[in-house]
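Appendix B. Chain record.
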Amino acid sequence: MAKALVELVDVRRAYRFGDAVVNALAGLDLRIERGSFVGVIGRSGSGKSTLLNILGGLDRPTRGELLIEGQPLLARRSDELARYRRETVGFIFQSFNLIPHLTALENVALPLRLSGKFGFFERRRRAKELLEEVGLGHRVGHKPAELSGGERQRVAIARALANDPSLLLADEPTGNLDSKTAEEIMGMIQALHAKGDRTVVLVTHDREQAERYCQRVIVLEDGHLKADRPARGGATPAEAAPPGEDAGLVDSGAEQVARGDAPGDPHREAIARLEEQLAVLKRRLGDDPPIAEASAGAGGESSGGLVPGDAGTSAAGATDEGSTA
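Structure tokens predicted for this chain:
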């Protein structure tokens, strides 16, 4: 059996909304092997993003244990958790989370600056190499507003790879992209996985995408593990979900549109941004209590996916990479 990079033992996460308590994760036991490509699917509210946030060290479970290479993660000090987020994990978000006033090169170089391991010229060299790797060597001096959606996500992928993480977490990375660009981005993520010993965990509403690109599919329902099986590569939606197995546990496009949750929906994006800001404020004020007065939705990050407090330098002032990209 392959060595586990990540192991969750009876992980539970509860959120309080007034007098109601919502169990986003309800006793999850899960093992993710090093070098695997795992797709996590399920309806909205099934616990997908909560799971991703806990894996990334952005959130703490109410109960249970999270082991990284056999070592407890949650027992680490806050500075050790920050180092874990910077150096072990790479984040790719649906809304890109690039810093608007920084160029593509400066966005990619920012994690390198926060790591404190590289000088100015080495950061620029490494950032340029990563942008060339994702096909954007000719766009290094462009800011996010000057890039297409696909190009922004490519910059975000390059940024996620900056510190060569062993665990890549992708939360709906193609949700804001057209189908052709989505295929290009997923092909790139698949190639990055195949290239080395990197573990990828993909959260998606798109069952067909998970079946096509991942090696293993995990289905969550109401915070519980409903299914855990090998992916059926290249399967059609009908083939991917035989009746009686896990059919009906992933939202259809029509269901997402009906509740205003379709990829790219402006109302959903506004809500997501508010949730991200709330999550940032909560982290600045300190650790969540065991049951947090927080939203159970995805706790995305500001500052281009870099957690405030991960270094003594704010992203807002991170312009030392220069403007001559």
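Further analysis of this model is presented in Appendix C.
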